[in-house]
């Protein structure tokens, strides 16, 4: 066990004894770091407390802010914590209950929060295991594709105003929402630009000039895909990775599910659902109306963002000194992302 | 796209820092140590592939030169009050052409091309035909640069 890992366990044990379990016997066992995230670090562990026949055990997840992670300058760990707190107590969505948020960076090196460990297993959709699982999940009569749509529909139709999220969520006028999102992309480009790129220039200008009519805003996940869900048998047991959630246009999430980068060579969206079924069933569940052109617009938005993500990753490896080789791999994918953007724009 | 020597050196650092200390099998460890040495030699025995950049430089210079000449005489461009801007871009293009470092020239041509695209979009109603042509140029550029992607 590395010293670093042992230090985290000791600090965390003390933290649990004083803030969460309130028992001097609380001990952390089976502590593992989940595959290191592109954004935050996550650790999975059990806490045991009590003695002999009264001994209890519960699974937890620690989410720790990763400085220098992708888009770290636009993410807010506290907002994520408050949103999970609201969703886990005021909605029926399968999201983890949260227990504590800690701002003091001296404890674990950066701010963090603690949440419950949900049952279920996550799959990398393009892995051999993931492809096999989603192939079965996509089969006729399997309820998972329906749940996939229903959870998104439930999220988008939540009465967020009654959830008192206002102070944690930036209140945005729906008429200016897309202007703000495009400005964010321009700022990302300005921050991470390794060189000027004609495809990015084309994509950003196209987005400015082809905005669809606004829709009322909803809570949106902004990273809703099968790789960010937990499954057990024929049930979705968890929706994870809420770091990009915001008050936004629900078509943003729909187009993200439709994005080519989230299915690559699969004919199914996110390796799970048929496109027509997904969009039609969603409309049926929510009553929210949109056109194919609207979804296309938001697909272009995401593709330009994927392009900038590659740029950000390349910047992290080649300029900021990151030794995470996934950043280098993503940086080298920049040309492929440009090609995908060009194809989506029709050339 | 990115510098070969820098990339291979970083790769070596990762193997030493993140991989070798965590290998418990002696054979795997020996292989990883050998990999570090092989990577150093691969670096010394190969050169950066600048060929696609050269091809793109030729493509962009030729296309931008033609399009800027056409724009300089286009009444739609003149009507948008862009005559001076186009002349400035023509001048900048000639300066870029004298650049001898391949990658620097490639970056400068991309910067000029990006600026030109933004300018045309700002006058989209009058100059939309140029967007279509610029996209065919970008497509040719991407097709060349895909040689650098596995």
Structure overview:
The complex is a heterodimer of chains A (347) and B (150). Chain A is of the alpha+beta class and 347 residues long. Chain A folds into two domains: 3-116, Phosphorylase Kinase, domain 1 (2-Layer Sandwich), CATH 3.30.200; 128-344, Aminoglycoside 3'-phosphotransferase, Chain: A, domain 2 (Alpha-Beta Complex). Chain A contains twelve helices and nine strands. In chain A, the strands form three sheets. Chain A has a five-stranded antiparallel β-sheet with strand order 1-2-3-5-4, with helices on both faces. In chain A, strands 6-9 form a two-stranded antiparallel ribbon. In chain A, β1 and β2 form a beta hairpin. Chain A is globular, with a radius of gyration of 21 Å. Chain B is mainly α and 150 residues long. Chain B has two domains: 4-45, no CATH class; 51-148, no CATH class. Helix content of chain B is 81%, strand content 0%. The longest helix of chain B is centred in the middle third of the chain and has 23 residues, at 51-73. Chain B is elongated. Chain B starts with a helix and ends in a 5-residue tail after the last helix. The mean pLDDT of chain B is 95.
Element layout with pairings:
The complex is a heterodimer of chains A (347) and B (150).
Chain A (H helix, E strand, L loop, with lengths): L2 H18 L6 E7 L7 E9 L6 E9 L12 H14 L7 E5 L2 H4 L3 E5 L11 H10 L6 H13 L20 H16 L5 H12 L8 E3 L8 E4 L2 E5 L6 E3 L1 H9 L16 H12 L5 H27 L6 H8 L1 H11 L3
Antiparallel strand pairs in A: 1-2, 2-3, 3-5, 4-5, 6-9, 7-8
Chain B lengths: L3 H16 L6 H20 L5 H23 L1 H5 L3 H15 L4 H21 L1 H22 L5
Helix pairs in contact in B: 1-2, 3-5, 3-6, 3-7, 5-6, 6-7
Strand order of the largest sheet of chain A: 1-2-3-5-4
Q: How much helix is in the residues of chain B?
A: over 70%
Radius of gyration of chain A: 21 Å
CATH architecture of the largest domain in chain A: Alpha-Beta Complex
Number of strands of chain B: 0
Q: Topology as H/E string of chain B?
A: HHHHHHH
């Amino acid at each position: 066990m590395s010293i670093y890992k042992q230090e985290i366990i000791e600090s965390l044990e003390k933290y649990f004894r004083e803030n969460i379990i309130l028992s001097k016997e609380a001990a952390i066992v089976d502590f593992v770091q989940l595959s290191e995230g592109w954004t935050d670090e996550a650790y999975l562990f059990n806490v045991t407390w009590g003695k002999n026949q009264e001994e209890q055990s519960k699974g937890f997840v620690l989410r720790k802010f990763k400085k220098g992670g992708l888009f770290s300058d636009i993410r807010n760990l506290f907002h994520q914590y408050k949103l999970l707190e609201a969703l886990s107590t005021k909605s029926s969505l399968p999201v983890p209950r949260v227990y504590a948020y800690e701002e003091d960076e001296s404890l674990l090196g950066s701010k963090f929060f603690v949440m419950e460990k949900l049952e279920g297993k996550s799959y990398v959709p393009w892995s051999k295991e993931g492809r096999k699982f989603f192939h079965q999940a996509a089969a006729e009569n399997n309820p998972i594709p329906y749940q996939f749509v229903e959870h998104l529909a439930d999220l988008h139709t939540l009465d967020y105003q009654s959830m008192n999220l206002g102070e944690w969520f930036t209140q945005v006028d729906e008429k200016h929402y897309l202007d703000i999102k495009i400005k964010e992309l321009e700022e990302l480009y300005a921050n991470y630009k390794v060189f000027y790129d004609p495809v990015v220039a084309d994509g950003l200008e196209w987005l400015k000039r082809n905005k669809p009519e606004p829709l009322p805003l909803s809570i949106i996940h902004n990273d809703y895909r099968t790789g960010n869900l937990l499954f057990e048998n024929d049930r979705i047991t968890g929706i994870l990775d809420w770091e990009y959630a915001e008050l936004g246009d629900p078509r943003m999430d729909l187009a993200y599910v439709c994005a080519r980068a989230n299915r690559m060579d699969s004919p199914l969206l996110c390796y799970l659902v048929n496109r027509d079924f997904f969009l039609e069933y969603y409309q049926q569940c929510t009553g929210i109306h949109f056109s194919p052109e609207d979804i296309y617009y938001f697909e272009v938005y995401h593709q330009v963002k994927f392009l900038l993500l590659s740029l950000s990753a390349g910047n992290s490896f080649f300029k900021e000194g990151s030794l995470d080789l996934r950043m280098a791999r993503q940086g080298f994918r920049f040309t492929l992302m440009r090609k995908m953007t060009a194809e989506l724009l029709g050339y | 796209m990115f510098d070969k020597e820098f990339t291979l050196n970083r790769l070596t650092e990762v193997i030493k820092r993140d991989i070798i200390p965590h290998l418990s099998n002696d054979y795997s460890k020996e292989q990883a140590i050998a990999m570090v040495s092989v990577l150093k030699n691969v670096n010394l025995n190969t050169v950066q592939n600048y060929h696609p950049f050269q091809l793109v430089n030729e493509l962009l210079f030729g296309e931008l030169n033609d399009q800027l000449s056409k724009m300089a005489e286009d009444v739609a461009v003149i009507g948008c009050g862009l005559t001076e801007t186009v002349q400035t871009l023509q001048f900048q293009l000639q300066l870029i052409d004298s650049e001898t470092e391949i990658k620097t020239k490639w970056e400068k041509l991309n910067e000029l091309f990006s600026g030109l695209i933004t300018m045309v979009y700002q006058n989209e109603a009058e100059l939309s035909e140029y967007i279509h042509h610029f996209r065919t140029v970008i497509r040719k550029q991407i097709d060349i640069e895909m040689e650098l992607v596995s």
